[in-house]
Amino acid sequence: MQYVFHPERVCAKVFIIEVDEATRTIVKFDFQGGCPGNLQAINRLTRGMHIDDVIERFADMPICSGSKVTSCPEQIRKGLLELKAKLDAGDTARPAFGLSAFGSLK
User: How far, in whole angstroms, is CA 80 from its chain's centroid?
Assistant: First the structure.
């Protein structure tokens, strides 16, 4: 399952988290914006980890000095918590793309 998360108050604009639904392990973590070295390192370090382990390890991370509110690891944790809630609820629907996605718009 691929989950797209839009972080708040950090340099990164989008996190794309791919998770194996059966094992709930991270298959891939992509991003747009932000610090490429740090986020590529997070991709490599979290690949193969269970989402609960990442959520636990990223708890209470220090905030970025520029934002004074949050950090990328905290925002990744927030995204994983949302993804976990979707998985727990059985909501694994894929986003609809193409012209058929606009069928319900008036």
Answer: 5
Is 4 within 8 Å of 15 (Cβ atoms)? yes
Residue 17, CA distances (Å) to 6, 9, 14, 103, 105 in order: 11, 19, 10, 27, 28
Using one digit for the tens of pLDDT, what is the confidence trace for 30-44?
Answer: 999 998 999 999 999
Do residues 63 and 3 lie in contact, with contact meaning Cβ atoms separated by under 8 Å? no
pTM across the whole model = 0.82
The CB density around residue 42, as the number of other CB atoms within 10 Å, is 21
Q: Distance from first CA to last CA of the chain, Å, rounded?
A: 29
Q: For the segment 69-93, what is each residue's pLDDT rounded down to a tens digit?
A: 888 999 999 999 999 999 999 987 7
